[in-house]
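Researcher: Please predict.
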Amino acid sequence: MKWEDSKKGFESFLRLEKGLSANSIAAYINDINKLMTYADEELKKLSPEKVKLNHLKKFVEWINDKGVSPRTQARTISGIKSFYKYLLIEGKITSDPTSLLESPKIGRKLPDVLTIEEIDLMIDTVELSKAEGQRNKAMLETLYSCGLRVSELVNLKISNLSFDQGYIKVEGKSNKERLVPVSEKAIEEINKYTDVYRKTLKISKDSEDILFLNRRGKKLSRVMIFTIIKNLAIKAGFEKKISPHTFRHSFATHLINGGADLRAVQEMLGHESILTTEIYTHLDRDYLKSTLQNFHPRS
């Protein structure tokens, strides 16, 4: 069995059977590439079906020695486990060498969030005098109002906007659709963008239903969204790292801290498991301190 043939089959399995997005598939294939490199360099080009548990344990030591973080190690091991489960399902192997492979212990990292004031500052930093300014403002309002992933933002369709009902339809991971409420402020900024800037563009045929477009009338890339937000954060004077996902984290955290039902937040974020959503139930130290001072009888 050759690595390249196995990878191609695994890639087709992830796309057709699992329905994963291109980005998720690329992440899985990257995990397999790491193991393939190790097998070529350290195991005398050992083929996939001949890899055993002891080889995999050595592989984990190998990536650890290269300075790979425990979180990334865990992600890589997860990808490799999925690969060998696929080989087992397809009858390419008779036993799974990853069944007893342990992932490194990792702490649960709380996501970085912005305060409401910092959100406002970021949005106010947008230069509306520039042609793309209103588009950028509308995108930030949409990210914060709806808690979208960056991939969901760039793929947002005009035909999925139901502003009269106060909802947008989002195409999430594995092509799963969900309805998300949209704020009046986001609706206002999107309408300003579509009524002015978007109408001036010569829109390409494959992007006619895409809401947010670049100056060439094509769908924005994920990288472009990251760049826009990174530049705005620098301009606003923020030292912490801010990405499109920071707006999603802030959306969820502000809802939870405001008393929103965890199940409702799970639905809006499109999380399959509520355990993923529970990370947003953290409370910052200042909030805990003020709660103690205001309500404890000994304070």
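Model: Strands lie at 161-162, 167-171, 177-181.
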